[in-house]
Design goal:
Layout lengths: L1 E10 L2 E11 L4 E5 L6 H9 L6 E6 L2 E2 L10 E4 L11 H11 L4 H14 L15 H13 L5 E5 L7 H18 L2 E6 L2 H7 L2 E6 L2 E6 L1 H6 L4 H6 L4 E10 L3 E6 L2 E6 L11 E6 L4 E4 L7 E10 L3 E8 L2 E8 L11 E6 L9
Parallel strand pairs: 3-8, 3-9, 6-7, 7-8
Antiparallel strand pairs: 1-2, 1-4, 4-5, 9-10, 11-12, 11-14, 12-13, 15-19, 16-17, 16-19, 17-18
Helix pairs in contact: 2-3, 2-4, 3-4
The structure holds adenosine-5'-triphosphate and magnesium ion.
Length: about 350
């Protein structure tokens, strides 16, 4: 549906985006995720036609749109700050793109009414943006972006100006609307939770380049780089030595304990290599007595965070954080001598 090849953007001597290539399939929801300044908005603006690429091509539905002006790309756009027309009602804002496309009055009325229903704002149709809440304004902006049945929807941090509670509600709402309409969607965010929850695939960006493209589970459990491992969620980094390698797994020695670990994507490990294993806090098991494959550790700090208790541990020189269900953490005390092991990440089904 959307195909971007070797896209780059230079501002003077500064390279904002470098050699960015991505294919987005029909009805797919893909997110660009990365820290501030990593080039996310720049990529989106080039796809929208608001910024001219320094190099590369953009195809939408097999048509080369690289040098088409924005209005001829037929893209639905929603930005962080609600770019609604302040002098128009919600109804007229949504009707606007249809009027400029010269839809007939009756077709406009039907379409706008059904969009207002889709975004749950039928009762707000006659209000102006300044009488709408932030969440209602973004829902209006989304309805306006979808009005002319665009084949592609681009969203730049559409939820980030909203407070936490509204944002959470609008997240699942956005996903529902995307599923209902089946519109191919590319969204920019720097909120990792949002990206993991909403996306079919996530593109992790760092300093203008793609670090990794994968499903939320790939990105979370099988990060291809140290950057991705640390950027997405909390992680334990463990030094280990590779003892044996088979086609898709490796045997690693971590403090004298042998573990079978999936072979990382995009890397080639050999016996004898010193490597870093990444284990999420929820993949650390803690026991009061030593089971096979566990090493001794000491509890240095416990912090209760509701459903989970974060257990800080020290095993030799290594600091480890474990998330334990609070309902099962009652036996843990500061200073306790315990035993830990890591649950290796699952292999990707399709690799
Ligand atoms: N018009 C411009 N002129 C010069 N430099 C620019 C311009 N627009 C963006 N940049 C630079 O390009 C880089 C990427 O910017 P971009 O806005 O794409 O980042 P971003 O990932 O969207 O960040 P954020 O999460 O803060 O929105 C930044 O270093 C930025 O300063
Ligand atoms: Mg941005």
């Amino acid at each position: 549906m959307l195909s971007v090849t070797n896209l780059s953007k230079h501002f003077g001597t500064h390279t904002a985006v470098s050699d960015f290539s991505l294919d987005v399939g029909e009805s797919e929801f893909v997110t660009l995720l990365g820290p501030s300044g990593s080039g996310k908005t720049t990529v989106l603006r080039m796809i929208a036609g608001l910024l001219e690429p320094s190099a590369g091509q953009i195809h939408i539905a097999s048509q080369d749109v690289t040098s088409l002006p924005p209005q001829h790309r037929n893209i639905g756009l929603v930005f962080q700050s609600y770019a609604l027309f302040p002098n128009m009602t919600a109804w007229d804002n949504i009707a606007f793109p249809l009027r400029i496309r010269r839809w007939r009055a009756e077709a406009i009325r039907k379409r706008v009414d059904s969009l207002l229903e889709l975004v749950g704002l039928s009762h707000r149709a006659r209000f102006h943006p300044d009488s709408l809440s932030g969440g209602e304004r973004q829902r209006t902006a989304l309805a306006r972006a979808l009005a002319f049945h665009p084949p592609l929807l681009l969203l730049d941090e559409p939820l980030s100006a909203l407070d936490a509670k509204v944002r959470q509600g609008l997240r699942s709402f956005l996903k529902d609307v995307q599923r209902t309409t089946g519109v191919t969607t590319l969204m920019v965010t720097h909120d990792q939770e949002e990206a993991l929850e909403l996306s079919d695939r996530v593109v992790v960006m760092n300093a203008g380049r793609i670090e990794q493209v994968g499903t939320p589970a790939d990105i979370y459990y099988r990060p291809a780089s140290t950057f991705t491992a640390h950027f997405i969620g909390r992680v334990n980094a463990l030094q280990a030595t590779v003892r044996a390698v088979s086609s898709d797994s490796v045997v690693v020695d971590w403090n004298g304990v042998l573990m079978e670990w999936p072979h990382p994507v995009n890397q080639s490990w050999s016996a004898g290599d010193t490597v870093t294993l990444f284990a999420r806090p929820e993949s650390v098991q803690v026991s009061p007595t030593q089971n096979p494959g566990q090493i001794p550790a000491r509890v240095t700090h416990l912090s209760f965070s509701g459903a989970l208790t974060n257990v800080h541990l020290r095993a030799g020189d290594t600091e480890i954080v474990a998330d334990i269900l609070s309902s099962q953490a009652g036996w843990l005390t500061n200073g306790a001598e315990v035993y830990v092991n890591m649950i290796p990440p699952k292999r990707a089904e399709s690799q």
